[in-house]
Amino acid sequence: MRYVTVGNYQISALLLLMIVLISPIAFAATYYLWTTRTIPLSIDEPLSITDYPDSIHVRPGENKTLDISILNSASVNYSVTLVFTLNNTEYQESYVEFSNHTYSITPSVNHIRAWINVDKKAPPVWLSLTTDFYRE
After folding, report:
1. Does residue 61 come out as left (phi exceeding 0), alpha (psi in the -120 to 50 range) or beta?
2. Which CATH entry fits the domain spanning 47-135: 2.60.120, 3.40.1350, 2.60.40, 1.10.3470?
3. Alpha-carbon distance values, 91 to 4, 56, 58, 74 (Å)
4. What percent of the chain shows pLDDT beyond 90?
5. Could you tell me which residues come within 8 angstroms of residue 136 by beta carbon, excluding any fewer than 6 positions away?
6. From residue 109, how far is each of 8, 21, 37, 43, 126 by CA, in Å?
7. SS3 category, 28
């Protein structure tokens, strides 16, 4: 076996060869680990309905205003359409009409007004109203 003298030490030529061959790989791996970072990224919904009526009482033939607050936590404006759905779609299609507007939602809290109109021929009923929105 051959040896190489370095200072006062004799090192195996095979060991020296292995160090020379492995060093660039170790350097590359170390460089990659120190310079590459992987972090979680989430794209979150920027809008949320923060305030809306707890209950709505309307009589046949009445038109009622709905005051709704939408929080925009982003730094950009969004166009939003509110979607109102009753748990009885047949009743909704026959007797109830909701506003169908597109609102411009700016950063911060936005107070918007929508409306519900109930036909004069509507029979009395207890329903659930779901309010959702679509960003455009």
Report:
1. left
2. 2.60.40
3. 94, 16, 14, 37
4. 71
5. 78, 79, 80, 81, 102
6. 76, 62, 36, 20, 31
7. helix
**13-57 per-position pLDDT tens digit:** 777 677 777 888 887 877 777 776 788 999 999 999 999 999 999
pTM score: 0.69
Q: Determine the Cα–Cα distance for residues 129 and 47; give it in Å rounded to an integer.
A: 20
DSSP structure class, residue 60: T
136/134 Cα distance (integer angstroms): 6
CA separation for the pair 99, 112 (Å, rounded)? 12
Give pLDDT, residue 36.
Answer: 67
For the chain, the distance separating the N- and C-terminal CA atoms, rounded to the nearest angstrom, is: 76
89, 99, 64, 61 alpha-carbon torsion, rounded to 10°? -60
Judge whether 63 and 115 are in contact, CB under 8 Å.
yes
For the chain, domain boundaries: 3-35, 47-135
